[in-house]
C-alpha cells in the first residue's frame, strides 16, 4: 500500500493503533509469528543491519534484553514487524497512531515520518544517553495507584530530591520517576494517603528532570535525522497533540525525555475524535488493557500472536463494515 493509499484508507475508519514502550519486552517475542510470516525476521534483519548487532538474537535469547540501549531498538523493531504483518494481511489502516514513550518512535516509523533504520539508531542512542544520565542504582520509578493526579504532584513537591510525575497512564494510575530516595519517600507518602505504590523494575528513571542532560545531547542527533510529516497523524506524548510541522515534532521528541507522558489525555483525544477500536501493535497487552477501561472504546486488541492478530483483523473488518 502506497503512502497516499494508506492516508486515504486511514480517513475512513474508527480504529487507532497504539505502540507500547519499555517494559513490554519478553524473551521469545514474535517467535510464533516469525514461523508464519517471513517479514518478521526480514524486519529484524533490516534493523539489525542499521545498528550493527543482532536484534532477533537479543529478542529470542534474552541476552541484554533488559538493558535500555538494547531494549529500545528491539521493541521498536518488534512493533514495526507486527505493523507490516497487519498491512500484509489486509488490516484496516488506522485513523490515528500513538505510542507510549519509546512507542512514539514506532508510531512515527509506521506513519512514514522516519525510516526504520534511522529510528533504531536513534533509540539505541536514546537508551545509551538515558543509561549514562543517571548512575546505576541512583534512580527509580514507581507506580502510584488510587490517588488523583494533583495529589501525586503535591506529594512529589513535598519531598527532598528530584522526583516527578513521569507517566499519566490512566485515571488513578501515575508513574513517578527521579532520585531513588525521593521516589521511595513519595511511595511512603502515597500509602499514608490511602494509595498504593509499586516499585518498577527499570534501569533508568525516564521522563523526569534527571533526563535533561540526555535530552540536550539527543537533540543534536534528532536534528541530523531525516524526518517528514507523518502520513497518518501521530499524537505525541508531551502535549497529547499532533505536530503541525517537523520542527514541532522534533521538539516534542526531545522534551519527551524529561517531560511527562500524557497517555490519559492521548486516549481522551482518540475518544473525542470518535475512535472506537484500539489495536496494540507490539509485544504484550498493557495498552490494550488500559484502553478497555475507557467508556467510548468498544474493543481493544493486542496483536502479538497469530490468534490475536487474526481475531483483531476479523473483528475490526466486520465492525468497520469491510466484510459481512
TrEMBL record:
InterPro entries in the record: Ac_transferase_dom_sf (IPR001227), Acyl_transferase_dom (IPR014043), Acyl_Trfase/lysoPLipase (IPR016035), Mal-CoA-ACP_Trans/PKS_FabD (IPR050858), Malonyl_CoA-ACP_transAc (IPR024925), Malonyl_CoA-ACP_transAc_FabD (IPR004410), Malonyl_transacylase_ACP-bd (IPR016036)
Enzyme class per UniProt: transferase
Keyword Flavoprotein: no
GO CC terms in record: cytosol
Segments forming domain Malonyl-CoA:ACP transacylase (MAT): 18-307
One Pfam family cited in the UniProt record for this chain: Acyl_transf_1
Record keywords: Acyltransferase, Transferase
Reaction catalyzed: holo-[ACP] + malonyl-CoA = malonyl-[ACP] + CoA
E.C. code: 2.3.1.39
Entry's family note: Belongs to the fabD family.
Protein name: Malonyl CoA-acyl carrier protein transacylase
